[in-house]
């Protein structure tokens, strides 16, 4: 990894561990209005301007193994199908027939040479081009060249697949910025999906994101696992451009060099600093990725309603031989379930409190400032002028965003 960055993070860890008060450059973190978690108008704006426009994580290239492989993706709120063309290129389209709007596939995933609508059997190539119209003689002046599936932006980075419903969205590489270099050592192209898990939560999606952007809670919530492994006094964070972030917390000395996975399932490209710490990247808007040497998760917080969220864990690991998932990985997933159960138990009660007449704005600490940074990026994505009165967070921390 970049030696300058590594030294910078190690220095910051030492500074964090030695301080007895707030750092000299710390400022009070402005309050976060709780209406943001309950107001249906705010939620509607998020659906439109965040999930309807920003790049969203959709999976890994290997989940579309062959030409004709397709998968539905509905998390942005729209019906989308992502399909690998005969030329090997992944493309995304609205899963909506140009005849009268029926889905061109109803299957979650599969492989097909053509996507054929089940209403009147119009069929499309894997490149979205309309190929066949039954009873074409009954359509006067039919211009099939103008009736392809409507495209959705789809780009990949290091094997990771993202889609955006905004046709004019900035290129994915530009959106990810410094994350690209810092996360590259996961070695995305060598990865394979281990499995997925979905937890249905009774809370606003941002409450769950907030929880993954700080480790202040680990001593209280995870006393029997994360708190034993990590020294929460060592946490250092970076507010990166576009609402992204990086959080690093050091492992306790006696456990720092303990391998987390047996050698045959270890990912050798993960550098020493990521092994001796827990370093996780927050990718705006709803993705958190902890770096790891074996199986690791892409944690996605998908809004279902203003007070309903699907927490989707997508596990990946360096590709292995055969169909059976190595026990090393299933063991890891089971262990992680305990941690997740501890995290998610807080969500419905917090939602009840922010929805009550007793709700007051959140006062987060300097060590939790990534939460404010994330919330500010939500405001910027919506457009501050559109926000319902009294729901905005301050711009006071903008000057702490680091370019790299
Ligand atoms: S709606 Fe698709 S063929 Fe009619
Ligand atoms: Fe947690």
Write up what this structure looks like:
- The protein is of the alpha+beta class and 404 residues long.
- The protein folds into two domains: 3-54 and 177-400, Naphthalene 1,2-dioxygenase Alpha Subunit, Chain A, domain 1 (Alpha-Beta Complex); 59-164, 3-layer Sandwich (Rieske Iron-sulfur Protein), CATH 2.102.10.10.
- Helices cover 24% and strands 24% of the residues.
- The chain is built from eleven helices and 17 strands.
- The strands form three sheets. It has a seven-stranded antiparallel β-sheet with strand order 1-10-9-4-3-2-5, with no helix packed on it. A seven-stranded antiparallel β-sheet has the order 11-17-16-15-14-13-12.
- A hairpin with a 2-residue loop joins strand 9 and strand 10.
- Helix 5 (205-211) packs antiparallel against helix 11 (369-382).
- It is globular, with a radius of gyration of 23 Å.
- 40% of the residues are buried.
- Bound molecules: FE2/S2 (inorganic) cluster and fe (ii) ion (FE2).
Write the layout of secondary structure elements.
Elements: H1 3-18, H2 40-51, E1 56-60, E2 69-73, E3 80-84, E4 90-94, E5 109-111, E6 114-116, E7 123-125, E8 130-132, E9 151-157, E10 160-164, H3 172-176, H4 179-183, E11 191-201, H5 205-211, H6 218-221, H7 226-229, E12 236-239, E13 245-250, H8 272-276, E14 277-283, E15 287-290, E16 296-305, E17 308-318, H9 327-344, H10 347-354, H11 369-382
Antiparallel strand pairs: 1-10, 2-3, 2-5, 3-4, 4-9, 6-7, 7-8, 9-10, 11-17, 12-13, 13-14, 14-15, 15-16, 16-17
The structure holds FE2/S2 (inorganic) cluster and fe (ii) ion.
């Amino acid at each position: 990894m970049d030696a300058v960055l590594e030294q910078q993070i190690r220095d910051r860890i030492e500074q964090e561990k030695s301080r007895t008060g707030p750092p000299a450059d710390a400022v009070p973190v402005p309050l976060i209005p709780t209406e943001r978690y309950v107001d249906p108008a705010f939620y509607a704006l998020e659906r439109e301007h965040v999930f309807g426009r920003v790049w969203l994580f959709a999976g890994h290239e290997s989940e579309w193994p062959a030409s004709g492989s397709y998968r539905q993706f509905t998390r942005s709120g729209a019906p989308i199908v992502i399909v690998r063309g005969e030329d090997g290129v992944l493309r995304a389209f609205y899963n909506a027939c140009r005849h009268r709007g029926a889905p061109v596939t109803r299957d979650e995933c599969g492989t097909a040479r053509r996507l054929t609508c089940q209403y009147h059997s119009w069929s499309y190539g894997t490149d979205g081009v309309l190929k066949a119209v039954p009873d074409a003689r009954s359509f006067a002046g039919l211009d099939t060249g103008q009736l392809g599936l409507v495209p959705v932006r789809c780009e990949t980075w290091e094997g990771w697949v993202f889609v955006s419903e905004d046709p004019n969205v900035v290129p994915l590489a530009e959106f990810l910025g410094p994350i690209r270099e810092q996360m590259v050592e996961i070695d995305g192209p060598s990865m394979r999906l281990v499995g997925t898990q979905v937890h249905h939560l009774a809370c606003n999606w941002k409450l769950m994101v907030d929880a993954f952007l700080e480790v202040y809670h680990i001593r209280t919530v995870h006393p029997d696992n994360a708190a034993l492994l990590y020294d929460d006094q060592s946490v250092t964070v970076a507010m990166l451009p576009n609402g992204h972030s990086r959080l690093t917390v050091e492992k306790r000395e006696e456990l720092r060099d303990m391998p987390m996975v047996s050698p045959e399932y270890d990912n050798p490209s993960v550098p020493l600093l990521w092994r001796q710490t827990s370093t996780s990247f927050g990718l705006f808007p709803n993705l958190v990725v902890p770096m790891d040497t074996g199986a690791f998760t892409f944690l996605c917080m998908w809004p279902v309603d203003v007070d309903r969220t699907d927490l989707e864990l997508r596990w990946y690991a360096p590709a292995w031989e055969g169909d059976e998932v190595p026990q090393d990985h299933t063991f890891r997933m089971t262990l992680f379930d305990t941690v997740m159960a501890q995290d998610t138990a807080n969500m419905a009660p917090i939602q009840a409190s922010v929805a009550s007449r007793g709700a007051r704005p959140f006062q987060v600490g300097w060590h939790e400032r990534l939460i404010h940074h994330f919330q500010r990026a939500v405001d910027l994505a919506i457009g501050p002028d559109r926000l319902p009165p009294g729901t905005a967070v301050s711009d006071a921390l903008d000057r702490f965003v680091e370019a790299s």
